[in-house]
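Issue 218. Parser rejects a valid record. Input:
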Amino acid sequence: MTPDIDAEMSAPVCVTVSGECRPVVADVLTAAGDVVIDCHAQRIEVATEESRVEVFERGMPGPSGPPGPPGSLESPIFRAVAGETIHGGRAVRIVDGVAYRPRISEAAHAAEVGGIAVQAGVEGEAVQVRALGSISDPAWSWTPGFIYCGDDGVLTQSPASAGWLLPVARSRDAHTLDVAIGFPVMRS
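Output the parser choked on:
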């Protein structure tokens, strides 16, 4: 299909495709002998060789593709190297792929919390960290509500009154958390 160029060269430049006028915000190149519109250089000329047609429009999504396969309800668990002793079932901060215990008195640590350690590990060992999805422990006894990162990564429903405040999960039931790291609130 060859686009037709609007008769007038007024701003914005439009290309008619399938009877619909669309503003052009990038170059349009068509087959030899057709028109080249270069909006950036504000010129129109006849193409002398065969070229591809590319039309880019801001804010106008293209047609949807076929649906993909269903995703997993259990989101990723990733591996990190323990930079110090890491306790399972605690929030960890991730710096360059290394897991550390967060301190709520250190403002920079709030933005580095990346998930909850699924297992314990000592310095140098790989530990699994859940960044999103559910995690269970039969020893837990949560009440409904948010779970926060406490000092040293301890999970708590009663956060300290000083330091930053960061929700890391929500209790699904007494033994299961839905992990979703929130946005930190800095407190004085």
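Fixed in the parser; the record now loads. Residues 9-46 form one domain.
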